[in-house]
Amino acid sequence: ESGYDAWLHYRRDRHVKQMPAWCRVIVVHETDDEVLQTAASELQQGLASMFGQQPKISTVPAHEPFVALGTFQDHPCVAERFSAEEQAEVSAEGYRIRGVEVSELAGLTGQDHADIKGRCVTVAGQTSKGVLYGVFHLLRYLQGGLDGKLKSTAKQSLHAPILDLLSNPANPIRMINHWDNMDGSVERGYAGASIFYNNNAFTTNMERLRDYARLLASVGIQALSINNVNVHQVETELITDRFLPDVAKVAAIFRAYGIQIYLSINYASPIQLGGLTTADPLDPDVAEWWQTKAREIYAAVPDLGGFVVKADSENRPGPFSYGRHHADGANMLADALRPYGGRVIWRCFVYDCKQDWRDRKTDRARAAFDHFKPLDGLFRDNVILQIKNGPMDFQVREPVSPLFGALEATQVLLEFQIAQEYTGQQKHLCYLVPQWKEVLDFDTYAQGKGSTIKRIVSGALHNSSNSNSHRGKAIVHANSGSLQEKPTHHIPKPTNFGIAAVSNIGADTNWTGHLLAQSNLYGYGRLAWDPDLSADEIADEWVRLTFSGQGKDNGDTELIPTIKQMLLDSWNIYESYTAPLGVGWMVSPNHHYGPDVDGYEYSMWGTYHFADCWGIGVDRTTATGTGYAGHYFPPVAGIYESIDSCPDELLLFFHHVPYTHVLHSGQTVIQHIYDTHFEGAERAAHLHATWISLREQLHETIYEQVLTRLEHQAEHAEEWRDRINTYFYRKSGIPDEKNRPIY
Ligand code: BDP
Predict the structure, then answer these.
(1) Please, which residues bridge with residue 26 across strands?
(2) How many CB atoms within 10 Å of residue 227?
(3) Which class is 173-545 in CATH?
């Protein structure tokens, strides 16, 4: 009980005495398809662990109930269970699961099944990846997650599964980005060293990588970049003979779980590796160098997903050095990868970190939009722009990036951060799914009502508008000076959309440091698959899967609801004792942990709150501020432009207001700051106390792991409270109405 098995521990259920009949035989046709083999062995292993008996694997059904796996093409046993229409409803990576009475299996491959009594279950997909995801769904169901819907009938349904479901992933790309360095460190890693590298070499612990692949595939992740976006000298060599054989080994491990790997590359590679004097994307020698490089890379790893690129940002090299635009840079790489089906995932986190310092009228929040909106329609169809959820940098509260929806002819990936860089670094509890849900459900109005972020990033909005007149409209390109091409207006490919997120795992035994932070990895995968799941449903699943078999009544009455509520409250708690009302930052520079109210205020990074004795906040309006608010579509822009309609939680992101300004809540800004900080610290202490109340019901090591973090959080929340309250009291001179201690 170390947390290593995470949500895949498949504990033996002490209430289930006998293995259900249908689990005893797994029918799967003989295959070279590695992913299908994985699906069969995962099912076999999961069932064996849950029921204490190893199921047989068989290529044909015998005269007993069974569970059949396969694609519709593989096995008559599978295909015959679904009508042509039912099969057609399954997308490339989706699946259907159905449990039926054997008597309903008439005509099955000419065999007589009359003497088979009971139920059979089928897991089917168009592809073996779909089958694998279906198997993990079935295991979730059996393990007690039951999708949160079948709790009370669970025991009965084990023996006669009434499952009949179809599940298709909403997002074609469901990716995790590692910020791992080859020296073994992890940029913004809070769970120990890298599992991929140590001492400037690849790990030899392939077992750990395989276990990671299982965790990812179990929640539907199918793309993985394995090195930091900031590519240093040694990682630059990942695309050379020195490391390509290792990359190939890692790719093989993940391939068996249906996961494609990607490499982050150094834009200056032609100089650093190739001895060229330039990395200018329009220099023919540079383009040729990348073409040759791509040939070498794909000879070693034929199914590499492609490249992830951070260019011209935070001192990384990029096309700007040569007076070129990012479309020039991305397209040159895309042409090199095209023959092999590779993609270029080009990050929009591009800003000049000194610009706001030089000129306080500029605004870092504008940067991604200002750089990329003018390039809409200019990217090759194997380029995808990866956009952080907000315009700044993964703060506890930010508006959504206005690039979503504004890019009409460009494929996009949304970028979340599972690593809790600014949200307590996996020492504080912060279940991020509710935050991500708000982003995904946000309506941009890009094409009228219903243009939600989730529909934009899944490609659904583009697909539905491909045929309407909207798409043909001319796109005005400002600054297209260096661009060699005219807008292509290509129709984005539906497969080149989705979600990526920065990983929160490391070599810690429980993967995420804080055991409860596993819920963020689980939740991210589930949400990327189905953005319509609620934060509550996902929390319920994760808690059930992780803690099943612990607590009284299988955890149903107390353990599960209590831990679930802790998760659901945690983002709000964290927000309430840290930077107020969307202003962000106020963290220690560099490492970003703990309060430092003016830590960034006088630095060059463009992350200011402008607090003085009269007020606080950043004026981002069009009339008097940086104009950022005008990047949104109406009516969103109008809502943010006006102090009266701007939502409280983002007020200081968009407006500079006096401390006496009255919020929609009826409270003044200053009193809101005091109240939320006192309450936040109290609620953090309550999380700690709640956990202590569960002591008897939890396994000791698990209890202890979480306890120490919650203890720290409670203390640290007090420090946050005191620093923020004191700061604002001294700035404003306005006392707390409730006379609580502020020094
Ligand atoms: C910020 C991190 C920095 C990353 C950067 C990025 O502080 O370490 O390199 O984002 O996304 O959140 O590139």
Answers:
(1) 57, 67
(2) 28
(3) alpha beta
State the complex-level ipTM.
0.98
Q: Contact at 8 Å (CB) between 400 and 444? A: yes
DSSP 26-64: EE------HHHHHHHHHHHHHHHHHHSSPPEEESS--SS
Predicted pLDDT of residue 75: 80
Q: What is the CB neighbour count within 10 angstroms for residue 52?
A: 12
* pLDDT for 536: 97
Q: How many whole angstroms from 149 Cα to the centroid of ligand 1? A: 39
Most distant pair of Cα atoms in the chain: their distance: 87
Name every protein residue with a CB atom under 6 angstroms from any ligand 1 atom.
187-188, 229-230, 310, 314, 349, 393-394, 421
Report the relative pairing of strands 343-347 and 306-309 from DSSP bridges: parallel
Asked if 358 and 623 count as a contact pair (C-beta separation under 8 A), the reply is: no
Instruction: Supply the angle between the helices 518-529 and 433-441 in degrees, to the nearest 10.
Output: 20
Domain boundaries, the chain: 6-167, 173-545
CA count, 13 A, side-chain hemisphere, 466: 12
Spans of the chain, pLDDT less than 70: 13-15, 102-118, 144-162, 355-361, 466-491
Residue 553's pLDDT is 76
DSSP calls for 637-659: HHHHH-TTTS-GGGHHHH--EET
Say how far apart CA 432 and CA 535 lie, in whole Å: 9
What pLDDT was estimated at residue 103?
A: 54
Q: Which atom of ligand 1 is nearest to the CA of 310?
A: 13
Is position 393 annotated as part of the catalytic site? yes
pTM of structure: 0.94
Measured distance CA(281)–CA(279) in Å, rounded: 6
Specify the CATH number of the domain 6-167: 3.30.379.10
As a whole number of angstroms, the distance between CA 82 and CA 70 comes to: 12
Residue 155: what pLDDT?
41
DSSP code, position 472: G
Please report which helix (H) or strand (E) contains residue 154, including its range: helix 154-159
